[in-house]
């Protein structure tokens, strides 16, 4: 199994920034996708950003230009730099990784709360 531990969540004012980090540990395997999802109360979980082993990234439209996903393959870590945060970014953010394009392993989530 693979364990994912997120950090960096918290409370921030609108317009502020947070940097989320996720460290993967456990059985070694080739990780292709490393991604961040989020789930706000009453809403479905949505993909926020993903980065693939070769460096390709994808973002949901609502965060383009504000969020940046990055990874360190040697350390099996992934980060999400979140800038210009607004109230709609408030959610539990989950780290997820997988050997293909669909994540298989999930973190426990970290709360991000943006106050107005």
The low-confidence parts are none
- Gyration radius (Cα, Å) is 13 Å
Mean pLDDT: 95
Strand content: over 45%
Measured as a percent range, the helix fraction is under 10%
Largest sheet geometry = 7 strands, mixed
Helices, by number, come to 0
Helix and strand content put the structural class at mainly beta
Morphology call:
globular
> What is the CA-CA span between the terminal residues?
40 Å
Series of secondary-structure elements, N-terminal to C-terminal: EEEEEEEEEEE
**How many strand elements?**
11
Walk me through this protein's architecture.
- The strands form 2 sheets. Strands 2, 4, 5, 6, 9, 10 and 11 form a 7-stranded mixed beta sheet that branches. This protein has a 4-stranded antiparallel beta sheet with strand order 1-3-8-7, with no helix packed on it.
- The protein starts with a strand and ends with a strand.
- By secondary structure, the protein is mainly β.
- The protein has strands at 2-7, 10-13, 18-26, 33-39, 46-51, 57-59, 67-72, 77-82, 91-98, 105-106, 110-115.
């Amino acid at each position: 199994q693979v364990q994912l531990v997120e950090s960096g969540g918290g409370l921030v004012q609108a317009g502020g920034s947070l940097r989320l980090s996720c460290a993967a540990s456990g059985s070694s395997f080739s990780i292709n996708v490393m991604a961040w999802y989020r789930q706000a109360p009453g809403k479905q979980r949505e993909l926020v950003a993903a980065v693939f082993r070769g460096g390709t990234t994808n973002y949901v439209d609502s965060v383009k230009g504000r969020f940046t996903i990055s990874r360190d393959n040697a350390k099996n870590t992934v980060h999400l730099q979140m800038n210009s945060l607004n109230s709609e970014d408030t959610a539990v953010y989950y780290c997820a990784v997988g050997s293909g394009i669909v994540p298989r392993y999930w973190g426990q989530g970290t709360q991000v709360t943006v106050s107005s």
